[in-house]
Amino acid sequence: MTDVVLTSVAEGVATVTLNRPAKKNAITTAMYTALADALDAAEGDPDVRAVLLRGDETVFCAGNDIGDFLDRPEAGPDDPGFRFLRTIARFPKPLVAAVCGPAVGVGATMLLHCDLVYAGEGATLHFPFVDLGLVPEAGSSLLLPQAVGHQRAAAALMLGEPLGAAAALDAGLVNRVLPDAEVLGVAHDQAARLAAKPVTALRETKRLLRSGTQAALLDRIEDEGAVFTRLLGEPEARAALSSFLARP
Ligand code: COA
Fold it and tell me: Which among 1, 5, 97, 201 is least buried, having the fewest CB atoms inside 10 angstroms?
Protein backbone atom coordinates (compact mmCIF):
# COMPACT_ATOMS: atom_id res chain seq x y z
CA MET A 1 0.00 0.00 0.00
CA THR A 2 1.38 3.40 -0.92
CA ASP A 3 1.34 6.34 1.48
CA VAL A 4 -0.95 8.27 -0.88
CA VAL A 5 -3.73 5.90 0.16
CA LEU A 6 -3.82 5.24 3.91
CA THR A 7 -5.88 2.59 5.65
CA SER A 8 -6.63 1.95 9.30
CA VAL A 9 -9.22 -0.05 11.21
CA ALA A 10 -10.96 1.05 14.44
CA GLU A 11 -14.38 0.29 15.96
CA GLY A 12 -15.16 -2.08 13.06
CA VAL A 13 -14.59 0.73 10.53
CA ALA A 14 -11.87 0.61 7.90
CA THR A 15 -10.90 4.15 7.02
CA VAL A 16 -9.47 4.64 3.54
CA THR A 17 -7.86 8.06 3.17
CA LEU A 18 -6.81 9.70 -0.08
CA ASN A 19 -3.57 11.35 0.92
CA ARG A 20 -2.08 13.28 -1.98
CA PRO A 21 -3.11 16.79 -0.95
CA ALA A 22 -0.43 18.59 -2.98
CA LYS A 23 -2.20 17.28 -6.10
CA LYS A 24 -5.69 17.67 -4.62
CA ASN A 25 -5.87 13.89 -4.13
CA ALA A 26 -5.89 13.28 -7.89
CA ILE A 27 -5.85 9.52 -8.35
CA THR A 28 -2.95 7.85 -10.14
CA THR A 29 -2.90 4.32 -11.51
CA ALA A 30 -1.02 3.14 -8.42
CA MET A 31 -3.66 4.76 -6.21
CA TYR A 32 -6.49 2.97 -8.04
CA THR A 33 -4.71 -0.29 -7.32
CA ALA A 34 -4.24 0.69 -3.67
CA LEU A 35 -7.92 1.68 -3.38
CA ALA A 36 -9.16 -1.55 -4.95
CA ASP A 37 -6.77 -3.55 -2.74
CA ALA A 38 -8.04 -1.67 0.34
CA LEU A 39 -11.67 -2.46 -0.54
CA ASP A 40 -10.84 -6.11 -1.25
CA ALA A 41 -9.04 -6.34 2.11
CA ALA A 42 -11.99 -4.69 3.88
CA GLU A 43 -14.41 -7.11 2.23
CA GLY A 44 -12.35 -10.11 3.34
CA ASP A 45 -11.73 -8.93 6.92
CA PRO A 46 -14.49 -10.06 9.31
CA ASP A 47 -13.44 -7.33 11.77
CA VAL A 48 -14.37 -4.68 9.18
CA ARG A 49 -18.11 -4.01 9.16
CA ALA A 50 -18.16 -0.64 7.41
CA VAL A 51 -15.77 1.48 5.34
CA LEU A 52 -15.18 5.23 5.49
CA LEU A 53 -13.78 6.91 2.37
CA ARG A 54 -12.24 10.31 2.99
CA GLY A 55 -9.83 12.97 1.83
CA ASP A 56 -8.91 15.77 4.21
CA GLU A 57 -10.64 18.93 5.45
CA THR A 58 -9.79 20.85 2.27
CA VAL A 59 -10.18 18.41 -0.60
CA PHE A 60 -11.86 15.10 -1.28
CA CYS A 61 -10.51 14.23 -4.74
CA ALA A 62 -9.71 16.08 -7.99
CA GLY A 63 -10.48 13.01 -10.08
CA ASN A 64 -8.22 10.96 -12.24
CA ASP A 65 -4.64 12.23 -12.46
CA ILE A 66 -4.68 14.16 -15.72
CA GLY A 67 -1.06 13.39 -16.54
CA ASP A 68 -1.91 9.68 -16.26
CA PHE A 69 -4.82 10.15 -18.66
CA LEU A 70 -2.48 11.68 -21.22
CA ASP A 71 0.23 9.05 -20.72
CA ARG A 72 -2.09 6.04 -20.85
CA PRO A 73 -4.89 6.75 -23.33
CA GLU A 74 -5.09 3.09 -24.28
CA ALA A 75 -6.19 1.97 -20.79
CA GLY A 76 -8.56 -0.98 -21.24
CA PRO A 77 -10.94 -3.07 -19.13
CA ASP A 78 -8.09 -4.58 -17.10
CA ASP A 79 -6.80 -1.15 -16.17
CA PRO A 80 -6.56 -0.49 -12.40
CA GLY A 81 -9.07 2.36 -12.76
CA PHE A 82 -11.74 0.03 -14.12
CA ARG A 83 -10.84 -2.57 -11.51
CA PHE A 84 -11.50 0.05 -8.81
CA LEU A 85 -14.85 1.01 -10.36
CA ARG A 86 -16.01 -2.60 -10.54
CA THR A 87 -14.82 -3.20 -6.98
CA ILE A 88 -16.63 -0.22 -5.47
CA ALA A 89 -19.77 -0.99 -7.50
CA ARG A 90 -19.86 -4.53 -6.10
CA PHE A 91 -18.65 -3.71 -2.60
CA PRO A 92 -21.01 -5.52 -0.21
CA LYS A 93 -20.36 -3.75 3.11
CA PRO A 94 -21.64 -0.28 4.04
CA LEU A 95 -19.64 2.55 2.50
CA VAL A 96 -19.65 6.03 4.04
CA ALA A 97 -17.96 9.08 2.49
CA ALA A 98 -16.68 12.25 4.14
CA VAL A 99 -16.40 14.99 1.52
CA CYS A 100 -14.79 18.38 2.09
CA GLY A 101 -13.78 20.70 -0.74
CA PRO A 102 -13.78 19.61 -4.37
CA ALA A 103 -14.97 16.20 -5.52
CA VAL A 104 -14.32 16.16 -9.27
CA GLY A 105 -14.68 13.48 -11.93
CA VAL A 106 -14.24 10.07 -10.35
CA GLY A 107 -14.01 11.90 -7.02
CA ALA A 108 -17.69 12.75 -7.52
CA THR A 109 -18.85 9.60 -9.29
CA MET A 110 -17.46 7.30 -6.59
CA LEU A 111 -19.87 9.00 -4.15
CA LEU A 112 -22.80 7.52 -6.09
CA HIS A 113 -21.59 4.12 -4.87
CA CYS A 114 -21.56 5.16 -1.22
CA ASP A 115 -24.45 4.43 1.10
CA LEU A 116 -24.08 7.56 3.24
CA VAL A 117 -22.35 10.79 2.22
CA TYR A 118 -21.49 13.62 4.65
CA ALA A 119 -20.37 16.89 3.09
CA GLY A 120 -18.66 20.00 4.35
CA GLU A 121 -20.11 23.42 3.64
CA GLY A 122 -17.30 24.00 1.13
CA ALA A 123 -17.84 20.75 -0.76
CA THR A 124 -18.54 20.80 -4.49
CA LEU A 125 -19.45 17.89 -6.73
CA HIS A 126 -18.34 18.41 -10.32
CA PHE A 127 -18.70 16.08 -13.29
CA PRO A 128 -16.70 17.88 -16.04
CA PHE A 129 -16.47 14.95 -18.45
CA VAL A 130 -18.05 16.57 -21.52
CA ASP A 131 -15.92 19.71 -21.22
CA LEU A 132 -12.89 17.40 -21.21
CA GLY A 133 -14.10 15.66 -24.39
CA LEU A 134 -15.06 12.58 -22.33
CA VAL A 135 -18.19 10.79 -21.12
CA PRO A 136 -19.41 9.99 -17.61
CA GLU A 137 -17.94 6.92 -15.94
CA ALA A 138 -18.41 4.72 -12.86
CA GLY A 139 -21.98 4.06 -13.93
CA SER A 140 -22.83 7.72 -13.29
CA SER A 141 -24.86 7.94 -16.52
CA LEU A 142 -27.20 5.43 -14.84
CA LEU A 143 -26.91 6.27 -11.13
CA LEU A 144 -27.07 10.07 -11.33
CA PRO A 145 -30.37 10.32 -13.25
CA GLN A 146 -31.79 7.60 -11.01
CA ALA A 147 -30.82 9.66 -7.98
CA VAL A 148 -31.75 13.18 -9.10
CA GLY A 149 -33.88 12.88 -12.26
CA HIS A 150 -32.91 13.34 -15.89
CA GLN A 151 -32.86 17.12 -16.08
CA ARG A 152 -30.72 17.68 -13.02
CA ALA A 153 -28.41 14.89 -14.18
CA ALA A 154 -28.17 16.54 -17.61
CA ALA A 155 -27.22 19.87 -16.03
CA ALA A 156 -24.48 18.12 -14.06
CA LEU A 157 -23.25 15.73 -16.78
CA MET A 158 -23.89 17.68 -20.00
CA LEU A 159 -23.53 21.31 -18.94
CA GLY A 160 -20.95 20.28 -16.35
CA GLU A 161 -22.51 22.55 -13.71
CA PRO A 162 -20.90 21.92 -10.32
CA LEU A 163 -23.19 21.28 -7.35
CA GLY A 164 -22.32 23.04 -4.14
CA ALA A 165 -23.02 21.32 -0.83
CA ALA A 166 -26.51 22.82 -0.46
CA ALA A 167 -27.47 21.82 -4.02
CA ALA A 168 -26.10 18.32 -3.49
CA LEU A 169 -28.19 18.04 -0.31
CA ASP A 170 -31.27 19.33 -2.12
CA ALA A 171 -30.68 16.81 -4.93
CA GLY A 172 -30.39 13.95 -2.45
CA LEU A 173 -26.74 13.21 -3.21
CA VAL A 174 -25.56 13.82 0.34
CA ASN A 175 -27.13 13.03 3.70
CA ARG A 176 -26.01 16.07 5.68
CA VAL A 177 -24.02 19.26 5.25
CA LEU A 178 -21.79 20.17 8.17
CA PRO A 179 -19.05 22.65 9.00
CA ASP A 180 -15.92 21.35 7.25
CA ALA A 181 -14.16 20.73 10.56
CA GLU A 182 -16.94 18.39 11.73
CA VAL A 183 -17.36 16.23 8.63
CA LEU A 184 -14.68 13.61 9.23
CA GLY A 185 -15.76 13.02 12.83
CA VAL A 186 -19.48 12.80 12.04
CA ALA A 187 -18.88 10.50 9.07
CA HIS A 188 -16.71 8.23 11.22
CA ASP A 189 -19.36 8.15 13.96
CA GLN A 190 -22.03 7.19 11.43
CA ALA A 191 -19.80 4.45 10.01
CA ALA A 192 -19.22 3.17 13.57
CA ARG A 193 -23.01 3.16 14.14
CA LEU A 194 -23.40 0.99 11.05
CA ALA A 195 -20.54 -1.26 12.19
CA ALA A 196 -22.35 -1.90 15.48
CA LYS A 197 -25.53 -3.16 13.79
CA PRO A 198 -26.38 -6.82 13.04
CA VAL A 199 -23.95 -7.63 10.25
CA THR A 200 -26.02 -9.98 8.11
CA ALA A 201 -29.13 -7.82 8.25
CA LEU A 202 -27.10 -4.80 7.19
CA ARG A 203 -25.34 -6.59 4.39
CA GLU A 204 -28.57 -8.07 3.04
CA THR A 205 -30.24 -4.65 3.25
CA LYS A 206 -27.49 -3.13 1.15
CA ARG A 207 -27.79 -5.97 -1.36
CA LEU A 208 -31.55 -5.49 -1.59
CA LEU A 209 -31.26 -1.70 -1.94
CA ARG A 210 -28.92 -2.18 -4.89
CA SER A 211 -30.34 -5.34 -6.43
CA GLY A 212 -32.71 -3.66 -8.92
CA THR A 213 -29.80 -1.82 -10.50
CA GLN A 214 -26.77 -4.02 -9.94
CA ALA A 215 -26.59 -5.98 -13.20
CA ALA A 216 -27.39 -2.91 -15.30
CA LEU A 217 -24.82 -0.92 -13.33
CA LEU A 218 -21.98 -3.34 -14.09
CA ASP A 219 -22.99 -3.38 -17.77
CA ARG A 220 -23.10 0.41 -17.83
CA ILE A 221 -19.63 0.69 -16.33
CA GLU A 222 -18.35 -1.45 -19.20
CA ASP A 223 -20.28 0.54 -21.85
CA GLU A 224 -19.10 3.87 -20.49
CA GLY A 225 -15.56 2.55 -20.18
CA ALA A 226 -15.36 1.56 -23.83
CA VAL A 227 -16.51 5.00 -25.03
CA PHE A 228 -14.39 6.80 -22.44
CA THR A 229 -11.25 4.94 -23.52
CA ARG A 230 -11.92 5.66 -27.20
CA LEU A 231 -12.50 9.37 -26.55
CA LEU A 232 -9.41 9.63 -24.38
CA GLY A 233 -7.30 9.10 -27.50
CA GLU A 234 -9.19 11.71 -29.55
CA PRO A 235 -7.80 15.21 -30.18
CA GLU A 236 -10.59 17.02 -28.27
CA ALA A 237 -9.87 15.21 -25.03
CA ARG A 238 -6.12 15.41 -25.41
CA ALA A 239 -6.30 19.16 -26.04
CA ALA A 240 -8.58 19.78 -23.04
CA LEU A 241 -6.48 17.65 -20.69
CA SER A 242 -3.22 19.16 -21.94
CA SER A 243 -4.54 22.68 -21.43
CA PHE A 244 -5.21 21.91 -17.74
CA LEU A 245 -1.62 20.83 -17.22
CA ALA A 246 -0.30 23.79 -19.25
CA ARG A 247 -2.03 26.37 -17.03
CA PRO A 248 0.36 29.15 -15.97
N1 COA B 1 -4.58 15.60 -12.11
C2 COA B 1 -3.32 15.99 -11.92
N3 COA B 1 -2.97 17.04 -11.17
C4 COA B 1 -3.97 17.74 -10.60
C5 COA B 1 -5.31 17.39 -10.76
C6 COA B 1 -5.61 16.26 -11.56
N7 COA B 1 -6.87 15.84 -11.75
N8 COA B 1 -6.07 18.26 -10.08
C9 COA B 1 -5.23 19.14 -9.49
N10 COA B 1 -3.96 18.82 -9.82
C11 COA B 1 -2.74 19.50 -9.39
C12 COA B 1 -2.55 20.82 -10.12
O13 COA B 1 -1.95 20.62 -11.39
C14 COA B 1 -1.65 21.54 -9.15
O15 COA B 1 -0.35 21.03 -9.30
P16 COA B 1 0.95 22.03 -9.16
O17 COA B 1 0.82 22.61 -7.76
O18 COA B 1 2.10 21.10 -9.32
O19 COA B 1 0.77 23.03 -10.24
C20 COA B 1 -2.17 21.07 -7.79
O21 COA B 1 -2.85 19.86 -8.03
C22 COA B 1 -3.13 22.03 -7.15
O23 COA B 1 -4.21 22.24 -8.06
P24 COA B 1 -4.88 23.68 -8.29
O25 COA B 1 -5.71 23.60 -9.53
O26 COA B 1 -3.83 24.73 -8.25
O27 COA B 1 -5.80 23.81 -6.99
P28 COA B 1 -7.14 24.65 -6.83
O29 COA B 1 -7.46 24.61 -5.38
O30 COA B 1 -7.03 25.98 -7.51
O31 COA B 1 -8.26 23.81 -7.64
C32 COA B 1 -9.42 21.80 -8.31
C33 COA B 1 -8.61 22.50 -7.21
C34 COA B 1 -9.66 20.37 -7.90
C35 COA B 1 -10.79 22.54 -8.46
C36 COA B 1 -8.66 21.91 -9.65
O37 COA B 1 -7.34 21.44 -9.41
C38 COA B 1 -9.24 21.07 -10.75
O39 COA B 1 -10.22 21.44 -11.36
N40 COA B 1 -8.57 19.93 -11.05
C41 COA B 1 -8.85 19.13 -12.23
C42 COA B 1 -10.09 18.33 -12.02
C43 COA B 1 -10.37 17.51 -13.22
O44 COA B 1 -10.68 17.99 -14.28
N45 COA B 1 -10.24 16.19 -13.04
C46 COA B 1 -10.43 15.22 -14.05
C47 COA B 1 -11.84 14.81 -14.08
S48 COA B 1 -12.14 13.53 -15.28
Answer: 201
Shortest-distance Cα residue to atom 28 of ligand 1:
24
Q: Is the dihedral of CA 215, 73, 230, 144 positive or negative?
A: positive
Neighbouring C-alpha atoms within 13 Å toward the C-beta of 234: 12
Concatenate the DSSP letters of all residues of 151-220 into one string.
Answer: HHHHHHHTS---EEHHHHHHTTS-SEEE-HHHHHHHHHHHHHHHHTS-HHHHHHHHHHHHHTTHHHHHHH
Q: Are 101 and 124 in contact (CB under 8 A)?
A: yes
List of domains in the chain: 2-180 (3.90.226.10)
pLDDT, position 214: 98
pLDDT of residue 73: 67
Q: Which atom number of ligand 1 is nearest to the Cα of residue 134?
A: 48
Specify the residue with its C-alpha closest to ligand 1, atom 29: 24
pTM above 0.85, yes or no: yes
